Amino acid sequence: MILVTGGAGFIGSHLCLEMLNEGHDVIVVDHLFSTKKESLNRVEEITGKTLTFYRFNLLDRSKLEQVFKNHSIEAVVHLAGFKAVSESVSLPLSYYNNNLNATLVLLEVMSHFNVKNFIFSSSATVYGKPTSNPITEDFPTSAINPYGRTKLMIEEILHDVWTSDLTWNISILRYFNPIGAHPSGKIGESPNGIPNNLMPFITDVAMGQYKELVVFGDNYPTIDGTGVRDYIHVVDLARGHLKALEKITVEKGYNIYNLGTGEGYSVLQLVQAFEESTGIPIPYKIMARRPGDIAECYSDPTKAENQLGWRAEKTIYDMCKDSWRWRQDNPEGYTSF
Ligand code: WQD
């Protein structure tokens, strides 16, 4: 059985879907802080398979120990964590408590039950302001906000854990910019109030929720002056985890992989791709840069391709079409009942 923490979230629900389709037995622990159980109901509906769900916070050690007592867990995929950069700046302590302490409890319980295959959801944000692109895994790391610091600290904690006990197999997956949704239109990124990220904002404008997109700066040293990112379809990202799981007892030890497409798209290029994919115009206005933003960030995904046998397959148009289908079919995200 595979334990997926945070499995009810945007990435997690897409991962659980791919895992069930691949025949894995899946257990999810999620405290539903930023999503609804409905996401997992739909995963079961789409796959026709069932998973085991527990609702609690990983900080609750006794409940977590009970899960390890009740199930024979082969590996853990750890996605649970707060992930809003701007929120982390105003609430650092809740980020350190929720992201760091929960991970420490999880690792201690895993160690106690001798479960030592661990896949960690990290982020390209650990590269800070890269000096060049594309980015490879050996690039220097630095954190520029508390959210990024929790990811970097956990990567270093995991390295210390592995150094102390080489029987651990740890794969760190550095996500670039996940967007899109499952083609069924039944699962996707559930809006939590005003979106932080670009694609949810584009789909909100397409829905008529906002009259225009605010573009944060067009004076960056990039192809058209707007920020360039490596957008990756969330289904490709999920499949990257399956490959990491498959290879974790082959590529043993402590390994880090970029999960990106290797292609960068500017804000205006993504807007154009969305308009071409959906036929919906996205009015925008250029405003000042957003504090903390970097100009350009895109991956070199060669290591994941060579060692995991994984490469992103979906195009930027798939990402736009699938994001839009999810948003159109679920104007209020997951309706809870
Ligand atoms: C993308 C580009 C903005 C909104 C963040 C986190 C990262 C990861 C993904 C968790 C930038 C521009 C955005 C808008 C805009 N999250 N933009 N108008 O900042 O690259 O990464 O989300 O792991 O850790 O840092 O993503 O989607 O916020 O921004 O012009 O309304 O779109 O300036 O150039 P980002 P984003």
UniProtKB/TrEMBL annotation:
It is an enzyme of class 5 (isomerase). Keywords: Carbohydrate metabolism, Galactose metabolism, Isomerase, NAD. It holds the Pfam family Epimerase. It catalyses: UDP-alpha-D-glucose = UDP-alpha-D-galactose. The keyword RNA-binding does not apply. Homodimer. Belongs to the NAD(P)-dependent epimerase/dehydratase family. This is UDP-glucose 4-epimerase. It comes from Alkalibacillus flavidus.
